[in-house]
Amino acid sequence: MSRTQHPQTLRHAVTVSGRGLHSNKPCRVTIHPVEQPSGIRFLHGPSGIEIPAKADLVGELTLATTLSKDGLRFGTVEHLLAALMGLEIEHALIEVDSEELPILDGSAGPWVDALVNAGTRSLAGPRRMIKVLRPVEVSAQGKWMRVSPYSGLRLRYTIDFNHPAIGRQSRELSLTPEKFRRELASARTFCMEQDIEFMRSKGLALGGSLENAVVFPANGKSALNDALRYEDEAVRHKMLDLVGDLALLGAPLQGLVEAHAAGHALHVALVKALLDDTQAWGWTEAGIQTPVRHVFGHRISSTQPLPA
Ligand SMILES: [Zn+2]
To answer: What does the pLDDT look like over 156-170, one tens digit per residue?
Structure first.
């Protein structure tokens, strides 16, 4: 269970610079604290256009999660979102001067280090969370995801790659900031060597290297990188991506999330399916066991009948 009873933001602003994985363009990101609970929002400094981290603003989903609005896009937002959600910093303004966030070392580790250095601060009021009340599932081509009721946030992820260096990997954990930092944050993004030529031909992965991704050769038993950070680094990175994509709910989640052979597209499909099924979830506040629903400004307990 979370220890945080109030919404959290940063104590100080923090700036991180680097290059985009796909564009290889330089990008400077400043994460600012906010004064009121207002979720996570991206701000394009040069144009002043703001894009909240919300599922209905997701654009492109191949190889990364992209937010788009008013002709502007922010690519590869998921690792920063994962770091924020993993540390329970659910309210921040992220000012960006380019359209793709820096890939850094391919994990959420450098983002976590920057956020930990900046420190956290509580905002007034209760920490509002989305509590799952009944299961919701999505599936496509043998891949599936399900979210079901659970007190806390628990993730269960399985991947099954027909590749000798990856194979089948499963991991399960109840998320806390400590576990996020220790077990998921440093896991790097990964790809197959044969995919690189294809991505480059599409103008993607131009900034990719062994410095920011684990690369598996076609049939080899080990990665081209010197060493993996975890034996099952691949499934841990998938879980990191999932934590980042769950930020698109717009509020922290209480539920069990199971994923089988999923990726960004299915993560976002699950987020949208849950939000669309308004009978499947309710609002709850940290420290309260019974979910509450806010209807026309009145708060009612879910044990009371709900208006149609
Ligand atoms: Zn990733």
So the answer is: 999 999 888 899 999
